[in-house]
Each structure stands twice: as structure tokens, then as C-alpha cells.
Specification:
2 strands, 7 helices, mainly alpha, single chain, two-stranded antiparallel sheet
Length: 215
Amino acid sequence: MNSKIIFWLMFAALTALILYFNAKYGMLRDESVQVKKKPYSYARTQLTWWTVIVLSGFATVILYRHEIPTFTPGVLILLGISSATTIAARITDNADQEHIEADRLSQNSKGQNFLVDILSDKSGVSIHRLQSVLFNIVIGLWFINQTLANIANSTIPMNEILPDLEQNNLILIGLSAGTYVALKTTENKNTSGSKSDKTTIKVDEKNENDIPPVA
């Protein structure tokens, strides 16, 4: 069977599996207990995108060449960036849930559609998310094309079939991910209504009520 056919069958199978788990368990959506239609998570989507691409190429090499390929340093760094972005986003969400009122959290906003959700923060569609999405799509398509070309070329050694990304490209993806995480840590804090503020207001109201009326 042609290596391209194998790759796209693997890609389709993994994509279908992701869609099933997302429909059943909301795997690509933010954590929320307030809205039924949870918004899609950019961080989870990015991690899923690269996982599907790399795993499809890895499985295709095994099925076509009957050998196990070696992950290049660039691929490992790329997966590490995606994983770190997801972890940082989850930590930020958990911290915000402890200190900010639930109805003011972006992850508790009703989801609209996939594209708008991953491109939007508390203020709406943002340029830094659009930039990161476009970079990941373009580099991802290059990775797929290069992987298929390397698999078809029998002279390429096994440790070079999965393409290695140049340092500057990895820096570019890392900067995009870092910008996303940095701005995500501030998006919910730009709104008023922290839990501590509410507690203070309640205490002040109680103290005010305890003051006896002046005769």
C-alpha cells in the first residue's frame, strides 16, 4: 500500500477518535461547571494537532518500512512546547477559579464554535492567538509533506524520516506559545469581582449593619 494512503488513513482514524472522545467527554474543551456548551481550548487543540500529525507519521513508518523510527530532537521539543502550553493553561485556569468569581471567568463563557473559541480570549478574537494558530498550521503542513517525502525515499536513514525542525522555527512556535500563556494569565484578572473583593464587601456590609442607629 502507498505510504501516503497509509498516512492519511492513520490521520483520519486518529482524528475520528479525537472527535469521538471530544463529543463524549469534551476532551478539547475548557473545564467549566457553569455552561453546558463549554468553549474549545486553544492549548488542548494545539497539543492534539501535533500529537495526531507526529503519531500518524510514526505509525506510517512502522507499517510501510517495518521499522521503528527515531524521534528527532526537534520533534521532541515541539511536543514538549505543546505539552507545556497545555499544562500552563490548566494551572492558570485552576488558579483563576480559586480567586475570581466563576461568572467572570473566560472558560465559563458559553462556547460559540470551534474557530471562534480557540481564537478568542476574554476580550474577543485576539491577534496573538490567530498568529499562533497560523504558524502551527503552516509548520504542521510542512511537517506532513516532508514526512511523506522522506518515507517514500528509501535512501533516507530511519533516524531522519521524521523531519527535524530548525532552531528558529522552534523558537517561533515557543514564542507564540509563550505569548499565549503570558496573556492568558492576565485575561481574567482584567475584570473586577475577585472572591476576596466579594468577601470584603460582605464584611463591610455586616459591620455597617452592626452599627446602632444614632438617636
